[in-house]
Structure prediction request, 439 residues.
Amino acid sequence: MTDYWNKKAELMPPKELKELQGRRLKDIVKYVYENSRFYRKRFDEAGIKPSDIRSIDDIRKLPYTEKSDLRDNYPFGMFSKPLADVVEIHASSGTTGKPTVVGYSRNDVSLWSEVVARSLVCAGVSSRDVVQNAYGYGLFTGGLGLHYGALTIGASVIPVSGGNTPRQLLIMQDFGSTVLACTPSYALHMAEEAAKLGYDLSKTKMRIGVHGAEPWTEKFRKKIEEAWGNNYSALDIYGLSEIIGPGVAQECPGKDGLHVWSDLFYAEVIDSDTREPVSTGEEGELVFTTLTKEAMPLIRYRTHDITSLINETCPHCGRTMPRLTKFVGRSDDMLIIRGVNVYPSQIEYVLMKFPAVGNNYMIVVDRAESLDTLGIRVEMNTRMMSDKMKDVLALEKQVEYAIKETCGVSAKVQLVEPGAIPRSEGKAKRVEDLRKGKM
Ligand code: DLL
Prediction:
């Protein structure tokens, strides 16, 4: 039997939903015009007044918000509330050394709990479940987001956070976890380690996986489900810090698109080049408007995630809100390495801080034992070239440390001789992603 967390919202007739979205859009545009210096200026420049917005279709009149707007207004310039009313702050990767900062009011935290609660129930999770939350707790929104949702529905949440696989497996077995919340690649890694360590996964109680924070394919889903056995159902959860964190959209057991909670987050799909909306069903870049957020509402925020919209009632669960097809990638160069967002420009920013490091580098991303690996080959500066092995090794360690500090991921850095990295004739190719086909 299909269960709902908020039946009224999740089964709202499309006409009613559209009217609600229209009313909320009007309110949020007025709210940001009055409370956000950034949006007042942006709307004034575009010649938009809040009174121009009368229905949800008027959303097309509004300018887009870009990730660079968050960077330019670092750290709190995008907030529509004073810091005194902000109760929680998270951050994700920015394109340079500074992170992208997001803030939540108390009501925003309730909203976040509500959408993750909806997502978990949509995946088939109930108050009787034991949720092993292996998303990272901290500035990343995965850990706390899933935590709030699991608390809200009354499940028993184990805040184990990411990593330490032997401990994860022990807890899973001894605490009788029934739901695994983590990235899809970590879910597969855990199953593979379990086999090596002699766990019999068919004897565990694990039945649902709530996997997201990185793109994954149907083929990868099959691998996870086969590895976990036991009719384990691996379901996709989507979200991004700027909009709320995890819980923006969720698959139901029908596995046919992710339900967007669009009474709260209005989704559009646009052509990245022309910036015009594409027709329903066509692939393009996802854009979100938060309809009720307080501390950091965003208007037409460009996610750079590529997907398409399905605008029909779900034949499996009956939810009426639009669905998103499984994500196929991004329209920019952001990489997701072990669930952490990394921009090549961020890596370059770190490398260039070392005078002994030259200008030519190559980022190699691969997958070993179902986990992503990050390698960076970088040339030494001719002038500072050291032939002492000890110096080279020490510098490699320093760069690795700096990458970990700024980007949040471990990298294997290899310093090479000047000229060792092939030059390209046109646009420099700085990234080699060898994971394709392994995802
Ligand atoms: O990854 C929030 C999250 C946590 C989602 C846990 C799901 C589970 P950020 O760190 O801000 O937030 O990264 C957001 O990750 O724009 C996508 O590119 C990617 N992403 C997130 N979920 C999915 C997914 C969290 N299910 C960025 N499929 C987004 C594909 C995803 N990509």
